[in-house]
Automatic annotation (TrEMBL):
PANTHER family: MITOCHONDRIAL RIBOSOME RECYCLING FACTOR PSEUDO 1, RIBOSOME RECYCLING FACTOR. This is Ribosome-recycling factor. It comes from the Bacteria. Residues 126-153 form a coiled coil. The keyword Coiled coil applies. Keywords: Coiled coil, Cytoplasm, Protein biosynthesis. Responsible for the release of ribosomes from messenger RNA at the termination of protein biosynthesis. May increase the efficiency of translation by recycling ribosomes from one round of translation to another. Gene3D superfamilies: 3.30.1360.40, Ribosome-recycling factor (1.10.132.20).
């Protein structure tokens, strides 16, 4: 392993951390409806638990309503029950084969709770990035110890990894601020 590989690996891992954080943010509910909300809801289908998207068509009817159209007739009640029992606080209503999932408006208290959740998730993402920085710096120190690189090269590598870390954390902070603004917008 050389310095270029250390930096490249650190950058790739940090980017994956940011992507994972973005995915985490999509699960946090705002006032608007989006189909990704039901991704973590699983329903029993022939003895195994599967995501709703594998047994039904999930679409948006309007900005505040998700529609779930089961592919099989008997699945409607199971899907409705799974959504109701999830921790999302949603109350689905069946209309024939179609299940409508209206998004309740967020209270001020719930909005504040959600901003805390977003900040906590952001801090976890920052910690993950800092851990990646530490790993990269340890690899550079190991190369120095094995006399494969000079002290100047090791110092330069640490500086580059620090700049990369700063950029990635700034990106995470931007995502946190945007999500908080989205949650607090009435």
């Amino acid at each position: 392993m050389n310095i270029a590989e250390i930096k490249k690996t650190a950058e790739q891992k940090m980017q994956k951390s940011v992507e994972a954080f973005k995915h985490e943010l999509t699960k946090i509910r705002t006032g608007r409806a989006h189909t990704g909300l039901l991704d973590q809801v699983h329903v029993e289908y022939y003895g195994s638990m599967v995501p709703i998207s594998q047994v039904a068509n999930v679409t948006l009817l309007d900005a505040r309503t998700i529609s779930v159209q089961p592919w099989e007739k008997g699945m409607g009640a199971k899907i409705e029950k799974a959504i109701r029992e999830s921790d999302l606080g949603l109350n689905p209503a069946a209309q024939g084969d179609l299940i409508r999932v209206p998004m309740p408006p967020l209270t001020e208290e719930r909005r504040k709770e959600l901003t805390k959740v977003v900040r906590h998730a952001g801090e976890e993402a920052r910690v993950a990035v800092r851990n990646l920085r530490r790993e990269a710096n340890e690899q550079a120190k190991k190369l120095l110890k094995e006399k494969l690189i000079s002290e100047d090269d090791e110092r330069r590598c640490q500086d580059d990894v620090q700049k990369l870390t700063d950029r990635t954390i700034a990106e995470i902070d931007k995502l946190v601020a945007a999500k908080e603004a989205e949650i607090l917008a009435v």
